[in-house]
Amino acid sequence: MSKIPFKNDGSFMELFKQMQAEQERVSIEKPVIPNVVKVENTDEFESKQCKTESETVIPDDSKVLVAIESLVLRVSGMSHSLCEAETKKFEDSIQYWFLTLPETNEYKFFRKRLADVRKQKTLGSLATGGPVHSRAVL
């Protein structure tokens, strides 16, 4: 707000109204930021899966289905960072063309299928009492 020198020439009321209007405009423009704590999902694949789960469609091409299944079986036991590195190796391959186009149904189906296989492996190892890879809390 700029300071306007006061002149006693009868325009006091007009200046006062202008100052009030300016203060109201400034108070309206200030955004109200609520104190909300946002909990972020650290698992990129799970958050992507939640977004695309309802949108996934099984691809019609059997060659693409075979390619997706083979890639899922290859990377399903890997950590997420290794999985990303491994899938980047195949981005130049014609067989895995969908890896470079994340908005396609084939890519979404690949991500959903990978998450499903990982869940099955996790549930299977829990049911059989096998080793569970988790970080110990000290």
From TrEMBL:
Superkingdom, natural source: Eukaryota
Biological process according to GO: mRNA processing; RNA splicing
SUPFAM superfamilies given in the database record: Surp module (SWAP domain)
**What are the annotated GO cellular component locations?**
nucleoplasm
Spell out the subcellular localization from the entry: Nucleus
The UniProt record lists the keyword Nucleus: yes
Single GO molecular function? RNA binding
Keywords noted in UniProt: mRNA processing, mRNA splicing, Nucleus
- Tell me which InterPro entries the record gives: SUGP1/2, SWAP/Surp_sf
**PANTHER family xref list:** ARGININE/SERINE RICH SPLICING FACTOR SF4/14, SURP AND G-PATCH DOMAIN-CONTAINING PROTEIN 2
What's the protein here called?
A: Uncharacterized protein
Upper lineage:
Eukaryota, Metazoa, Spiralia, Lophotrochozoa, Platyhelminthes
